[in-house]
Amino acid sequence: MPNELDSRMKMAMAAESASAARNRLYAAKAKKDGQGQLAKLMTAMATGEQISARRALIYLRGKIGQSDRHLEFLRQQKQAAAAREYPAAREAAASAGDRSAGAAFEQFEKVSYNHASVLEDPDIAGAEHEFYVCQVCGFIAVDVVPEKCPICGAVTGRFKQAAL
């Protein structure tokens, strides 16, 4: 069972990573809106947060357990998100009349199901495979890049091979 410091370090890593992503998003918007100085500030903030998240990750590396044991947890987490969290989020978006958010949550749901199905293969981590990730939606193709992404319709050129 992780101790309190490990739990706090995991929380810090997640919070810093999320804030960095959010600040990069706002930096892009500020740049688009002609607010160059604000864009630079948000980029600097995001970079600092990424450094903090990386430091937390380094601390946790020796404390997180076996990677192969994590696969079952991850599969269950992806299935739960696809079966419960994203459908509830889609309902909330529909109630709010926000089609864009509803479409995003629907796509997240489909991608989570895809990730869970990839993780169901008992040989996925042991046998030699290539993984290709759709850069539009996050769909993972195993060994062969599809002509079109089955989730978002992106063309083959939008897939990137996962590398170490």
Characterise the protein shown here:
The chain is mostly helical and 164 residues long. The protein has 3 domains: 4-63; 66-126; 128-164, Single Sheet (Rubrerythrin, domain 2). Helices cover 65% and strands 6% of the residues. The chain contains 4 helices and 3 strands, in the order ααααβββ. Strands 2-1-3 form a 3-stranded antiparallel beta sheet. α1 packs antiparallel against α2. It is globular and about 50 Å long. The model has no long low-confidence stretch (mean pLDDT 92).
Q: What's the domain count?
A: 3
Form type: globular
Spatial order of strands in the largest sheet: 2-1-3
**Residue share in β-strands:** 5-15%
Rounded mean pLDDT score: 92
Unreliable sequence segments = none
Fold topology:
Layout lengths: L3 H29 L3 H25 L6 H30 L2 H22 L10 E4 L5 E3 L16 E3 L3
Antiparallel strand pairs: 1-2, 1-3
Helix pairs in contact: 1-2, 3-4
What is this entry, summarized?
The protein is mainly alpha-helical and 164 residues long. It contains four helices and three strands.
